[in-house]
Amino acid sequence: MYLGMEMSEPGSSSERRRYLVVAEEVLKAVAVGNLTVGDRLPNERALAEQFGVSRSTVREALFALELGGVIQVRPGSGYFLTGAGIQTESQPPLAGTSPRHLVEVRGLLEPAVARHCAQEISRADVERLSALVDDAERAGLGSSQDSIDRYLALNFDFHLELAQTCGNPLLAGLIGQLLGTGKHPLWLLMNGIVVRDPAIRTQQVAEHRAILWAIADGRGEEAGEAMAAHLGALSARVFGSGTGRLRVTRSRRRRSA
Length: 257
Fold this sequence. Notes:
Blueprint lengths: L17 H14 L12 H8 L3 H13 L3 E4 L3 E4 L17 H22 L2 H18 L4 H20 L4 H13 L3 H10 L3 H19 L3 H20 L18
Antiparallel strand pairs: 1-2
Helix pairs in contact: 1-3, 1-8, 2-3, 4-7, 4-9, 4-10, 5-6, 5-9, 6-7, 9-10
């Protein structure tokens, strides 16, 4: 199998270690459907040539992907995409959902959550949600992996708490399932790479505040629009503005046994 890849311009993320850029490009190929479970990645030498990096950089990227449960190394056979769509008893019901589909469905449902919340939310709810945003802002100022992990967890909590206060238990349950899927290793690794940029963390906090302020003021339509804009920005940060910068041309696909 040949995997045609182009390195994207690092832009504001130019300070990231290069192995993270390699890992991100592989994850994007998965997210947009250019790579699927069972596909074998090219070998280290081929990946190094395609990305214009050293084999040691590729090795670091593959190790990170392996730790995230995205690929499996088979001695003598190579690197295979695995786990991204394999459901186990410990995974949420929609664990096989791709990150792109996850964000699309959230973009349909969560603006409705925000509009409902503007009519249902109490002062105590606003204070609790505001505290979550404040905690996320403080966590986002850190640069350690622990700080980033805490920042991501608080962001998930913000969306989950909103859903639970919207007054519609069915809608809240659907959002809970979607957010549970968002904790799958593939999504967590991809999202974690994106928010390594401090400017993105700062912007996401500002987006959450805008949503909450509109809700607290009872401005339902504005709250829905702010949520839609927030999730649209999330999609653009993760996937880019197009259909994905990675192109895959398969001459032959090898499936896992």
